[in-house]
Design goal:
The complex is a heterodimer. By secondary structure, chain A is α/β, with parallel strands linked by helices. Chain A contains 8 helices and 10 strands. Chain B is mainly alpha-helical. Chain B has 2 domains: 31 residues; 218 residues, MetI-like fold. Classes of the chains: A alpha/beta, B mainly alpha. The interface between A and B is medium-sized, with 19 and 17 residues.
Chain lengths: 256, 256
């Protein structure tokens, strides 16, 4: 067990009432796994991710990564945000260098490292541009390069492709698998897109709202490169649909 | 909407010419005493006299150019001082918001007191000469600068804070690398507005106790019953204010 979520609960005060964002959620994630947290809005998937990343503390329960309890964010476990979180006043290259500035590296080494990861996402030619001059997909790739350059152990991704169009989203899904999986990183990916979860994940954690909890876990035992239109893909997708009560049961009457 | 430069120049020239024509006409047609309502020509002559010879009958017989330089010197000291203090304090108070909630009531109490009302104390504490003018300019620029910097920090994109925490930046690094650049456009805007207010207050500051400068020249011209020189000085003050505003706009464009 690498990441261990022990019976956590998170409550928010809204007006006079308490909203249970997460209730008694337990989960364990192995090193090197690609986990998707899948569910509709309000099911607590982003809250759970925040707990894992250390941005929030649970009201009850504990989160462990390795042997240590998570109490604060750490550069070893980096988050990729839906709105990229790039600094508009910095150039693309300077943005990627951010994670390296907290480490003891001289200017030349920082630049080299940043360029290496920028090359990995295919954006070296944009290194002197400002983020506002890039498309959404390119900006997210810069954010990914920024995270990778700091060489974290875990990547948390909070609906990273939510703001992009469907075609760019599919291209970036391919990129994520190629870049991140190859490095042996553990990835926790939040999404509400079922196809995306089936395409990317080793295991899909299906969550439901009111209160936020885990409905079930679907194991996806397909090798990568996965074909989005293959039969295996559709079988797994069906399983997820069924778990989320999205499949309509047709009643058929037989006359014999 | 960007009005073409040519058109802007044309509009300004036309409106100024019309104003001058109406002014001259009013003087010729009406029979106002010269003292109450000087004509454009006499103001122009007074301007030249001030520029080359100073004010006859004055206690300080220096030329207009010297007065301008003295005023600008005081203005620079007071304005730069207020900007640096306001921005530094604003960044810290905006970041350590709990501290600010204790300081804010005092700020709101002191802010509405007109800088001119401070004059008796300022003269008692610092004497006459440069100090009153510099102090008034400082007060005029400080509070707007402080409050808008605090607001800018407050309204910074929340994701920047998360990114800074995640990548392990220290508080000092976060303030310097993230908070200040993020807040800068808003800060710059309020500094431009503060520039205008501070220049206006310069004149009132120099009217009390100074022995040189444009504000002093106003009092001097009044004492010598030279309303043409008075109007010439007022127009000079207005033109310099315009040039300062134009200057800071250029600076803003260059930096941002």
């Amino acid at each position: 067990m690498y990441i261990c979520v022990e019976d956590v609960s998170v409550n928010y005060q809204q007006g006079g009432s308490t909203f249970e964002a997460l209730k008694n959620v337990s989960l364990s994630i192995e090193r090197g796994e690609f986990i998707c947290l899948l569910g509709p809005s309000g099911c607590g998937k982003s809250t759970l991710l925040n707990l894992l990343a250390g941005f929030e503390k649970p009201a009850r329960g504990r989160v462990f990564i390795g042997e240590r309890q998570v109490t604060a964010p750490s550069p070893k476990y980096l988050t990729i945000f839906q709105n990229y979180g790039l600094f508009p006043w910095r150039s693309v290259l300077h943005n990627v260098e951010l994670g390296l500035e907290a480490k003891k590296m001289n200017r030349k080494e920082r630049r080299q490292q940043a360029l290496k990861y920028l090359d990995m996402v295919g954006l070296v030619q944009a290194k002197d541009k400002k983020p506002c001059q890039l498309s959404g997909g390119m900006q997210q790739r810069v954010a990914i390069a920024r995270a990778l350059a700091a060489e974290p152990e875990i990547l948390f991704m909070d609906e990273p492709f939510g703001a992009l169009d469907a075609i760019t989203r599919m291209k970036l899904q391919d990129d994520i698998l190629r870049i991140c999986k190859d490095g042996g990183k553990t990835i926790v990916f939040v999404t509400h897109d079922i196809e995306e979860a089936v395409f990317l994940a080793d295991r899909i954690v299906v969550m439901e709202a009111n209160p936020g909890s885990v409905q079930g876990i679907v194991k996806v035992e397909m090798p990568h490169e996965r074909d989005r239109t293959s039969d295996d893909f559709i079988v797994i997708r069906d399983k997820v649909f069924a778990m989320m009560h999205l499949k309509k049961e047709k009643e058929v009457e037989y006359y014999i | 909407m960007r009005i073409k430069l040519g058109k802007k120049v044309w509009c300004t020239a036309v409106s100024l010419l019309v104003l001058l024509a109406v002014w001259e006409a009013a003087v010729l047609i009406g029979s106002f005493p010269e003292v109450l309502f000087p004509s454009p020509i006499s103001v122009w002559n007074a301007f030249w006299q001030l520029w080359t010879d100073g004010l006859p009958g004055s206690s300080s017989r220096v030329v207009l150019g010297v007065h301008i330089l003295v005023s600008l010197k005081r203005f620079a000291a007071g304005y730069v001082g207020s900007v640096v203090t306001a921005v530094a304090a604003g960044l810290l108070l905006g970041w350590f918001f709990r501290v600010f909630s204790y300081i804010n009531p005092i700020v709101q109490l002191v802010r509405p007191i007109a800088p001119v009302a401070w004059m008796p104390f300022i003269v008692l504490w610092f004497g006459i000469g440069d100090a009153p003018a510099v102090a008034i300019i400082f007060l005029a620029g400080f509070f707007p600068g402080l409050l808008s910097t605090v607001a800018a920090v407050e309204h910074m994109e929340p994701v920047y804070r998360k990114v800074a925490r995640n990548f392990g930046l220290s508080q000092a690094q976060t303030l310097y690398k993230v908070v200040f650049p993020a807040a800068f456009p808003q800060i710059m805007n309020s500094l431009r507005l503060a520039l205008g207010t501070a220049w206006i207050f310069l004149v009132s500051g120099e009217m009390v106790g100074a022995q040189s400068g444009l504000g002093f020249l106003i009092m001097d011209a009044k004492n010598c019953l030279r309303s043409d020189a008075l109007l010439a000085t007022m127009i000079t003050i207005g033109v310099i204010g315009l040039l300062l505003d134009w200057g800071i706009r250029r600076l803003e464009k260059f930096v941002l």
